[in-house]
Amino acid sequence: MNINLEILKCAYIYAPTQIEELNTKELVPKMVTRRRLTRASKIAIYLNSLCEFEDGRIIFGSAYGELDATSSILNSINSKEQISPTSFQNSVYNTAVSYLSMINKNKNEIMTISNGDNTSLNVLKSGAIKAIDGDTILLMGIETLNIPNIEQINRCINFLECGVALKVRVTNEKATMNIDNTNKNHFPKSIVSMMNIAKNIDTNKKNIIEINI
């Protein structure tokens, strides 16, 4: 079964260690809320604003989840210290998209997918199935790997923080672009399929991808 999706808007951002230009103060005016946000949450809010998506279904993907919160918990256990309640609260995979939905008061369906290197590809497939209903959906993939001592194990990823968002809807028109799974820029593999689509958008034509389910 093949389903075609039109890319209505897209946004992406990445940095070797930490992304700086997220406009978090402007996008989240309340300081108390802003202080609770994880790095992935800030990226999600930023990408969402660029895609101008306020109310609708979201499918979010991350292979590694909230790695900083998880690392903090494990370090506390190793040091036999009390676990931070904030780290515990933020350690689940859907933390980023949950903060996003609360800030935007978006009460629609939110789905989180984690499937290793195939995460963004499965976000696309799930998005295609959901889009059959006819509404506009936001697909999002984010990885935040910049944790203490990451350089001791990282040998192949050039960008420790990266995120991509695609606002899509189903279409009967023919595909105009292919899904490219090559990793020329050494992003986390879990985000490559969606990142390559976003980086190859042609603003002078309709951008349509064919998803094989």
Give the full name of the CATH homologous superfamily.
Answer: Thiolase/Chalcone synthase
> Can you summarize the main beta sheet?
6 strands, mixed
Number of helices: 8
Task: Return the CATH class.
Answer: Alpha Beta
What is the CATH architecture assignment? 3-Layer(aba) Sandwich
Whole-number tally of structural domains: 1
**Which fold name corresponds to the CATH topology?**
Peroxisomal Thiolase, Chain A, domain 1
Low-confidence parts, pLDDT < 50 over ≥5 residues? none
Helix content estimate: 25-40%
Assign an overall shape: globular
Q: How is the largest sheet built, in terms of strand order?
A: 3-2-4-5-1-6
- Compressed to H and E, one letter per element, the order equals EHHHEHHHEHEEHE
| Number of β-strand runs | 6
Structural class from helices and strands? alpha/beta
